[in-house]
């Protein structure tokens, strides 16, 4: 795979990658360290919550999405450098046994007005479960290098 310079990208381009599997032990381990709430830690306690069962933390879903994004065919020159997130939603929970994949779409490409060596690319990435249902949607602005010379 080659690096994608700003000039290589255009609105409408799509990149896909996955799947990655989610299991109860990983959900609980992430939650124990970063989001220790009962619905992320204990199947029995989780049954009586809004989630009606064990659910991954949204931040765990975000971390899994980032892993998929890094491994995907989308390879911006200079790396995956975020300049901010405009939108982040979790429309449904991630459950043990889910297999997640991502679909990313370039929404906007614009050269920087103040830094001629780079630009900003707006990307929407949707994380889907094995049923094709979205479990996370985020829109991020990324810094991408321009082609040298």
Automatic annotation (TrEMBL):
It comes from the Bacteria. InterPro entries: HotDog_dom_sf, MaoC-like_dom, MCH/BMMD. PANTHER family: BETA-METHYLMALYL-COA DEHYDRATASE, MONOAMINE OXIDASE-RELATED. This is MaoC family dehydratase. It comes from Noviherbaspirillum sedimenti. Residues 11-126 form the MaoC-like domain.
């Amino acid at each position: 795979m080659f690096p994608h310079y700003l000039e290589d990208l255009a609105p409408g381009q799509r990149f896909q990658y996955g799947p990655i599997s989610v299991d109860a032990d990983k959900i609980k381990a992430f939650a124990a360290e970063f989001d220790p709430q009962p619905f992320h830690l204990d199947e029995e306690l989780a049954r009586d919550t809004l989630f009606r069962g064990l659910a991954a933390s949204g931040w765990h879903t975000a971390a899994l999405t980032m892993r998929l994004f890094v491994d995907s065919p989308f390879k911006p020159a200079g790396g995956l450098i975020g300049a901010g997130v405009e939108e982040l939603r979790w429309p449904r929970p991630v459950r043990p046994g889910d297999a997640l994949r991502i679909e990313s779409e370039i929404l906007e490409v614009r050269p920087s007005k103040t830094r001629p060596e780079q630009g900003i690319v707006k990307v929407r990435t949707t994380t889907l479960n094995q049923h094709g249902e979205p479990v996370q949607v985020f829109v991020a602005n990324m810094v991408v290098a321009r082609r040298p010379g």
